[in-house]
């Protein structure tokens, strides 16, 4: 997803549900939220960058 933690925070601040929530915050609330996200993401950083688990189901149907 990202090579550095700061890069990941920028991406998450621009797209997805976190971006919408962060856009509604300001001042201390924004800083607290950003610090909380940074803390959670730090556990997923490796020498290869940020890695978050994910899964996808692809389903098709015919009528």
Helix/strand layout:
Layout: H1 5-12, H2 16-23, H3 27-42, E1 45-46, E2 49-50
Antiparallel strand pairs: 1-2
How would you explain this protein's 3D organization?
- With 63 residues, the chain is mainly alpha-helical.
- It has one domain (5-50).
- 51% of the residues lie in helices and 6% in strands.
- The chain has three helices and two strands.
- The chain has helices at residues 5-12, 16-23, 27-42; strands spanning 45-46, 49-50.
- The chain has a two-stranded antiparallel sheet.
- α1 (5-12) packs across α3 (27-42).
At a glance:
The chain is mainly alpha-helical and 63 residues long. The chain contains 3 helices and 2 strands.
What Rg do the Cα atoms give? Answer: 15 Å
Poorly predicted regions are none
Shape: flat
Helix content: 40-55%
Strand segment tally: 2
Can you write the helix and strand succession as a string? HHHEE
> Biggest sheet, in brief?
2 strands, antiparallel
Category from helices, strands and their pairing:
mainly alpha
Number of domains: 1
Strand order of the largest sheet: 1-2
What value does the average pLDDT take? 89
Percentage of residues in DSSP E strands: 5-15%
Number of helices: 3
Cα end-to-end separation: 37 Å
Question: Which tags fit this structure?
Answer:
63 residues; mainly alpha; two-stranded antiparallel sheet; 3 helices; 2 strands; 51% helix; 6% strand
């Amino acid at each position: 997803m990202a090579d550095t933690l700061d890069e990941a925070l920028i991406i998450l601040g621009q797209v997805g549900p976190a971006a919408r929530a962060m856009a509604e915050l300001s001042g201390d609330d924004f800083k607290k939220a950003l610090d909380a996200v940074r803390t959670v993401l730090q556990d997923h950083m490796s020498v290869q960058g940020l890695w978050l688990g994910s899964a996808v189901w692809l389903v098709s149907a015919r009528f």
